[in-house]
UniProtKB/TrEMBL annotation:
Entry keywords, A to Z: ATP-binding, Glutamine amidotransferase, Ligase, Magnesium, Metal-binding, Nucleotide-binding, Pyrimidine biosynthesis
Annotated positions binding UTP: S13, K187, T188, K189, P190, T191, Q192, K223
Catalytic function, reaction form: UTP + L-glutamine + ATP + H2O = CTP + L-glutamate + ADP + phosphate + 2 H(+); L-glutamine + H2O = L-glutamate + NH4(+); UTP + NH4(+) + ATP = CTP + ADP + phosphate + 2 H(+)
Protein name: CTP synthase
Subunit comment: Homotetramer.
Other noteworthy facts: CTPSs have evolved a hybrid strategy for distinguishing between UTP and CTP. The overlapping regions of the product feedback inhibitory and substrate sites recognize a common feature in both compounds, the triphosphate moiety. To differentiate isosteric substrate and product pyrimidine rings, an additional pocket far from the expected kinase/ligase catalytic site, specifically recognizes the cytosine and ribose portions of the product inhibitor.
Binding site for ATP: S14, L15, G16, K17, G18, I19, D71, A241
Span list, region Amidoligase domain: 1-266
InterPro entries (UniProt xref): Class_I_gatase-like (IPR029062), CTP_synthase (IPR004468), CTP_synthase_N (IPR017456), GATASE (IPR017926), GATase1_CTP_Synthase (IPR033828), P-loop_NTPase (IPR027417)
Entry similarity comment: Belongs to the CTP synthase family.
GO BP term, example: 'de novo' CTP biosynthetic process
Originating gene: pyrG
Example of a GO cellular component annotation carried by this entry: cytoophidium
Length: 554
């Protein structure tokens, strides 16, 4: 039977609940336990697909095409043996949606539909379903205890704890122990209050994970245990680490994995964290560095590009260098020369995915520079579409655009493909209506890589599977024109024969892909495309060591 670890948060948000939960899961996996993870989000949106990255950070896309919370990205990066799916993230909105659908269908005929039991039953049903087939399912509840919004989730957890019993469920609560500089002390009171708040809704935590800026004293550990009714050894101290990937080891040093296994009666091997150790050793000790200019729209909020940041970090480790990311605001790049210097001083340029016209001119300026100066360029999704448009405009001389930015463009290099014939010759239609939720090409799809392409060399495979999240496609009518001018199509989607990737043949490293390779990058090993990109940046840096300005590092 699956055992459940519920993870709640207190005091303040943004304590890194997702990362901590993922670290616990990684630690359990290192003991050979089959672990999965699920995130419950208390907001009303049905999924985060239509939310701005400024609101919510990146939208993480699962293999089966769900648009999910970015915490699922951490879950996949920390776990090797468990892939996330649409069952691993649900919101209050989604719960209400399915309860309301049932109500309209008449499933509750005669009854009054209420939060308890109807909403809570639906939550419990989904939690149970998400854990099927695993030894342990970790369930992270978004928000902070005391929020009105998360109450139905908390109530479902309370009921499940009673139903499952002590040996099948565990409640882990993450809190903050702030350091008050003027008093020179760490304060345990917020943690005490947060646990009190939990108890008031019938939840007594079994484990406390105390986040803090500085190390917490043993005295404070004892004090927290005493005031919160939690065993002393179950008060886990988690001061800020240099890297999030050290957290599994930090938790292991305090024997959190032993405690969980004893509680659940699981006989397992001891944890083998040697691969994490090897990864963090390289990460924290890399001496050389390269700088990648990331030209995007949401540069003030690095969470908006979380998976790309992580993929670059992983690729750095794979190449034994530190990768610095110089974020460049694409819109400001259009007018500010100083920002163009940032691009010029970088060892490589990356344009990530994005929606809407704002900033596209700046992005194309950066692409132009990379293309004409032999600077390694990686384009992702919109970063590919703009690379194609830039090339068509400046090399071929077409008045090219995407219909996303100009509906009536003369040369629609990028456009909505609403109809196509599938491999069985059947006409498929993609809806192109005003409902912006779920009308995109989403999730993992197979692509075939062209025989003598660099991309195929990099992946060392003729077919790949990568995740998508976009509405527009490269227009097949322009394939010959582009190829004749030197932009090679290096991959096509297996099903619809849509363009998946392009590359420049007479450039040291210029590759742009319609899919999102960042979603599948793993710390332990990296991703072939990012590894190769960073390698190209190292090479570029070595070759151009003398022509950089002294401000090259950002
Ligand atoms: N806006 C583009 C599209 O919808 C690109 C999307 C993206 O970069 N994820 O096709």
């Amino acid at each position: 039977m699956t055992k459940f670890i519920f993870v709640t948060g207190g005091v303040v948000s943004s304590l890194g609940k997702g990362i901590t939960a993922a670290s616990v899961a990684a630690l359990l996996e290192a003991r050979g336990i089959k672990v999965t993870m699920t995130k419950l989000d208390p907001y009303i949106n049905v999924d985060p697909g239509t939310m701005s990255p400024f609101q919510h950070g990146e939208v993480f896309v699962t293999e089966d095409g769900a648009e999910t919370d970015l915490d699922l990205g951490y879950y996949e990066r920390f776990l090797r043996h468990s892939k996330m799916s649409k069952n691993n993230n649900f919101t209050s909105g989604k719960i209400y949606q399915s309860v309301l659908e049932k109500e309209r269908r008449g499933d509750y005929l005669g009854g009054t539909v209420q939060v308890i039991p109807h909403i809570t039953d639906e939550i419990k049903r989904r939690i149970h379903a998400s854990g099927e087939g695993y030894d342990i399912a970790m369930i992270e509840i978004g928000g902070t205890v005391g929020d009105i919004e998360s109450l139905p989730f908390m109530e479902a957890v309370r009921q499940m704890r009673v139903e499952l019993g002590h040996s099948q469920s565990l409640l882990m609560h993450l809190t903050l122990v702030p350091y008050i500089a003027s008093a020179g002390e760490s304060k345990t009171k917020p943690t005490q209050h947060s646990v009190k708040e939990l108890r008031s809704i019938g939840l007594q935590p079994d484990v406390l994970i105390c986040r803090s800026e500085y190390p917490i004293s043993e005295d404070n550990r004892r004090k927290i245990a005493l005031f919160t009714n939690v065993e002393e050894r179950a008060v886990i101290l988690c001061p800020d680490a240099q890297s999030i990937y050290q957290i599994p080891s930090i938790l292991h040093e305090q024997q959190l994995d032993d405690l969980i296994c004893q509680r659940f009666g699981l006989q397992t091997n001891t944890a083998d964290l040697s691969d994490w150790q090897a990864f963090t050793d390289v990460l924290l000790n890399a001496e050389d560095s390269v700088t990648v200019a990331m030209v995007g729209k949401y540069v003030e909020l690095p969470d908006a590009y979380k998976s790309i940041n992580e993929a670059l970090l992983h690729a750095g480790v794979a190449n034994h260098v530190k990768v610095n990311i110089a974020y460049v605001d694409a819109e400001r790049l259009e007018t500010e020369n100083a920002l163009m210097d940032v691009v010029k001083n970088a060892d490589a340029v990356l344009v990530p995915g994005g929606f809407g016209e704002r900033g596209t001119v700046g992005k194309m300026q950066a692409i132009s520079y990379a293309r004409t100066h032999g600077v390694p360029y990686l384009g992702i999704c919109l970063g590919m579409q703009l690379a194609v448009i830039e090339f068509a405009r400046n090399v071929i001389g077409l008045e090219a655009n995407s219909t996303e930015f100009d509906k009536r463009t003369k040369e629609p290099l990028i456009a909505l493909i609403t109809e196509w014939f599938d491999e069985k010759g059947e006409l498929q239609v993609r809806s192109d209506d005003s409902d912006l939720g779920g009308t995109m090409r989403l999730g993992a799809q197979k692509a075939e890589l062209v025989e003598d392409s660099r991309l195929r060399q990099i992946y060392a495979s003729p077919t790949i599977s990568e995740r998508h999240r976009h509405r527009y496609e490269m227009n097949g009518r322009y394939i010959d024109t582009l190829q004749d001018a030197g932009m090679k199509i290096s991959g096509y989607s297996a099903k619809q024969h849509l363009v998946e990737a392009v590359e420049l043949t007479d450039h040291p490293w210029f590759i742009a892909v319609q899919f999102h390779p960042e979603f599948t990058s793993q710390p332990r090993g990296g991703h072939p495309l990012f590894n190769s990109f960073v390698q190209a940046a190292i090479h570029h840096k070595a070759q151009h060591a003398n022509d950089k300005q002294p401000t090259a590092e950002h």
